[in-house]
Amino acid sequence: MIGEIPVVTFDTNAHSRRVDDSRSRLALTGLSVAVFQAYAPIRRILSMSLRKRITPNWDQVLLLILCAVIGGCQARRDRATVAIEFTKIPPAAQGGRERVDTVAGRVVGARAGQQMVVYARSGPWWVQPWPDNALIPIQSDSTWTTPTHLGFEYAALLVDPGYHPPPTMDVAPTPGGSVVSVLIVKGTGTTELAPTKPLQFSGYDWKVRTIASDRGGLNNPYGGDSAWTDEKGALHLRIKKTPEGRWSCAEVVLTRSLGYGTYITVVHDTSHLEPAAVLSMTTFDDWGGDQHYREMDIEHSKWGDAASKNNSQYGIQPFYVPGNTSPFTPPSGTLTESLHWESGRASFKTVRGASAGGNGPVVAEHVFTSGVPTPGKETFQFLFYVVASDKSPMQKENEVVIEKFEYLP
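RE: above sequence
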């Protein structure tokens, strides 16, 4: 009847049956009686609390709580007993497709179904040897081995079944979730940087890339003859086709970091560039993954789409964050472009003509005040490369001319 106070009675035989059932469920959990008994004080406290609430199935609830607590502790102990070891560490060297080595090791405490994943750091952390072949089986003697491209550091991860390794990481991998354990080591020997060709331009020392890169979604060579200065001191960047049918691209990097200040470039006409060609004038820090590599860009390209209305943009990284790019369409002819970088602020401007100090008829300008990096080891770079495109693939050689580079503190 509504309003009556319920009367609770205890069936001693039923209670005994529940205790027997609990012992059976205890066996199913895999917990030993000794471990279960070690938690007797906790059981008594919880038992009293549950009895006070007159929960009919208090013993079942108690068992579930204890299993969760003990199981969590057991999982932490499992992680704590895992030990990863490297038995072969490749050299510390700048990465690229040209050089491949072997990395190997062993792992103690791995469970059935777990596998290894290896990353090499050269700029970002790159999964090895390839994204579609990243899961490394653990042998019966607890060893593992895989080919790897070179890097300055190497990370070995023990992962649970079902883990999907990202192709790259901006920061070092850490344990958590499906990543059970991580060990990071430096490459062996003296750090080896990829060979470059020296170049002088606008009173500064630069280095020209001479190894291939996957930039733009294509693996293309970068040749020392793809960048040079003429008799007037202007810098020429060229994309040309190799006898093998690939596009040789250009990368020219300043040899020192300049930090906050104003970066000014005078660029000859870019309106003739093919849709798949990209001219990027950028800051970049190979070691700055925690700040998206301190990348800030002035870029001219249609990104492989001839129908695109915009052929240029300013940007800071990550580019996928709304508001981190500002597209524009410059006119044909010479342009002076500038980046003024200060604390919490990156101001971009493009003006017509070869204008001293970046003054002239304004074509476009934009100021970023969110996500602006702080100085680190970034360098200013000129990149001239090809992006993958089904709509408008690269058809012929392209060349651009940078008349001048200037930096104002």
